[in-house]
Design brief:
The protein is an alpha/beta fold. The protein has 2 domains: 1-108 and 261-353, Isopropylmalate Dehydrogenase; 119-253, Isopropylmalate Dehydrogenase, CATH 3.40.718. The chain is 41% helix and 20% strand. It has a 10-stranded mixed beta sheet, sandwiched between helices. It has a two-stranded antiparallel ribbon with strand order 6-7. β8 (182-187), α7 (193-205) and β9 (213-218) form a beta-alpha-beta unit. The protein starts with a strand and ends with a helix. It binds nicotinamide-adenine-dinucleotide. Nicotinamide-adenine-dinucleotide is lined by residues 13, 17, 73-76, 89, 92, 257-258, 274, 277-283, 289-290, 293, 331.
Amino acid sequence: MTKKIVLIPGDGIGPEVVDSAVKVLDKITAKFGHNFEYENAYAGGAAIDKFGNPLPQAELDKCNAADAVLMGALGGPKWDNLPGDQRPEAGLLRLRKGMGVYANLRPAVIFPALKESSPLKSSVIGDGLDIMIVRELIGGIYFGKRGRTGDDSAYDTMEYSAQEVKRIGDVAFKIAQKRSGRLTSVDKANVLENSRVWRKAITDYSANYPDVELSHLYVDNAAMQLVTNPGQFDVIVTGNMFGDILSDEASVITGSIGMLPSASLGDGAIGLYEPVHGSAPDIAGKGIANPLATILSAAMMLRYSFDMQAEADAIESAVDAVLNEGFRTGDIAVDKSTAIGTVEMTNKVLEKI
Ligand code: NAD
């Protein structure tokens, strides 16, 4: 099968980890007889340096013409002093909006071989952790009206329509159906009017999924429950800002931010796939970045955009096998002196595939 993949290596360690993922994809094409065509696009700091714009329209057009987009990470201290709408993050928000990817899927998984890396006590983790956070990505407060009302005052607005809530709810209910059949919706309906719309819309919509058990939590309680009793969660659905914060919290309790992939999906098959971590400027260019989050993001791309389940399984099992054999990059190694680099870790995964 021929598929066109746009690569956005981005900034910092982005190019290093995307390079690893491409090697893994090439191995998959050789093993399963597919043909992946790659085209590079610029976004973030790299696009600011080249075009003076964190996401030129032509780069967005390339992405929308592809079957899927695989990205490294955007941003870094070099661009931190630019005005808000010219920063790398502005390019990222425009990319998500421009691709219409409203559903951000972030699995937070503790790999059995990495249990000791979690900052939580093993009595709290129990048998392990496997949570899927479904975050609304192109609405809410990050896209609401904002402005200054004076030198020292400003406002941001958070708005959700029932239609937006049902759209993201549909994704979450379907995922819950394929997992444990439990879905937790997180809001702040005791205070926020838009959260009351959220809660009613998701409750109404649940009638379409009688096989899924829906529960609700306020976001402050959800943040506490994630560290005191994470095992109760299977699928969580929430808005843009709450999802941003909770998914970072969930990824940190896995103890390995360098391991976690993400997928952002819209109505069609095209998706945006990227590791959860950022551009890690502190280790960029040193050859020590953990490539597994990006490699696992490529696996999600095969699963969700190309419907290549066996190919995705092959990558995920290879990663598991490499971890079980004890290979670690510096970020997840208990004994740092035994850590291997980006290229070595990639080669280990290639061998297992
Ligand atoms: P970060 O995730 O880049 O780094 C946090 C810490 O984790 C650092 O110590 C880093 O070395 C380590 N780390 C991250 N990924 C790693 C990997 N693959 N292997 C080994 N260690 C890894 O977060 P930050 O420092 O807050 O942000 C740095 C830059 O990245 C900022 O400019 C930020 O805006 C940007 N950022 C971009 C995205 C994105 O593109 N989606 C997401 C988060 C942050």
